[in-house]
Amino acid sequence: MNEMRMAEIMTTYLTNFAKYGNPNGIKNNDDGYWEPLSIGNTTKFLKINLPKPVMQDNLHQGRVKAWQQILKEDKLYN
């Protein structure tokens, strides 16, 4: 049953995006609000869990920090 519920959630998000340009649709989605990215926080993501998807921060945060350090040390970017 979990697979069916997950398919329903994703189908709703995808259908809403196709119809309205917004995965949340035109009314509040009971399955959880999918927040857009912002310039200030590009590591937000929708964690697709059951019973309800939730927004979380710091997607691949360890990777981001590693690349920031590499770029900081690279003479081309300083």
Describe the structure.
The structure is a single chain. The radius of gyration is 17 Å and the shape is elongated. It has helices at 2-20, 61-73; strands at 45-47, 54-56. A hairpin with a 6-residue loop joins β1 and β2 (54-56). With 78 residues, the chain is mainly α. It has two helices and two strands, in the order αββα. The chain starts with a helix and ends in a 5-residue tail after the last helix.
What share of residues are in beta strands?
A: 5-15%
Residue share in helix:
40-55%
The largest sheet is:
2 strands, antiparallel
User: Helices and strands: which structural class?
Assistant: mainly alpha
What does the average pLDDT come to? 82
Q: Report the count of strand segments.
A: 2
The SSE string, one letter per element, is HEEH
Shape: elongated
Contiguous uncertain segments of 5+ residues: none
Protein name: Carboxylesterase type B domain-containing protein
Domain Carboxylesterase type B: 2-67
InterPro entries: AB_hydrolase_fold, CarbesteraseB, CM06B1-like
Pfam family, one: COesterase
